[in-house]
Structures are given as structure tokens and as C-alpha cells.
Amino acid sequence: MSNLAQRELFGGAITADFPTDLIDASQLRQIPDTQEVLLSTVSDDSIVLEILQRVPPVDFTEAAKFHFSSIAQDNEAISSSVEEVLTVPNDRGDLTPSVVILYGRQGVQKFNRTHVDDVRVLLALYRVEDKSVDLVLTLNFPMNVGNGVVRSEDQYHEAKRAFQAIATSLRIIDFSLFA
Hints:
The protein is α+β, with helices and mostly antiparallel strands. It is built from two helices and ten strands, in the order βββββαββββαβ.
């Protein structure tokens, strides 16, 4: 992933530091009002920030796993597994909730291909409890990038470091977004 720069999302209600090689998918296609979708110009990576209704699990780790499972179902994943879940407290002094970060993988058949792609899904959950909102940030990081090229575990670990930097930089500026 490239250098990071602050980007405003949802009309400036949320900011975060994202790679500079990302483009706003709304320039290419219709995106729901509850989502911001960013696409890499140099790979098949995509980042989605989605405002969702709070899911039932009270435990934040279980809620992150719930969202990961929902994504696996949406992707029609043949397999999925959670590798690691960690909580990173917000110690900046603003009102943005602490973030729960989940690293997982999904086996997905794309575009009617016969082989299964190894897609690493990096997920960050921010629970805005007083608004009953789960703010979910995901990075889809395909390990198979086409033409037989496979990304290395080192590249994946670099993506994890970049994702954690993005996730911990996220700030909710205007909570009325969730009204």
C-alpha cells in the first residue's frame, strides 16, 4: 500500500488516513448512501466503510466476527476463518469509539472461475452505542492477483500494518451522521 493521506468521508463527517492510490468508487458506479467504497488503482484491493445497524452480540469481538461472517455470506465464500481479533483503544481524547480489528480469510470463487481465490479480509468495528450503529471498515486483500501471480505473506503483513494505521486514524467528526 502506498503513502497515507487524510481523506474526508460522508461529506466530512468522518476522516481517516488512506493510501493515496485509492479512488472513490462512486465516480465509477452507484454506491449506497450508507457506504463509502475506495478502489486501488494498482491492485484488486478495495476498502469499504459502511454504516450498519448494531448487531445483536454485546461482546465487541463477537460482533466483529458476526460482521465477518455476514461478509463471507455476501461473498458466497466457500470457506472462511478468523485469524486474529484485537482491540485498539482510542487514546486520542476524542469521542470516536475504540476499534476492534479482525483479520480473517475467505475462499471465494470469483467471476465464474473454477479455482478458489484466497481473499484476506481485514475488518475494523467501531460501535457507536448511543446511536445503535456499527461502523464497519473492511479491506479486501486478494492473495491471488491474476495471471498466476500470488502475493506473499510479507505483502499481506504490510497490508495489515497499513490497515491498522487506517483504522486507528479514523475519527468521527460529526455524530449527527448517525441520526
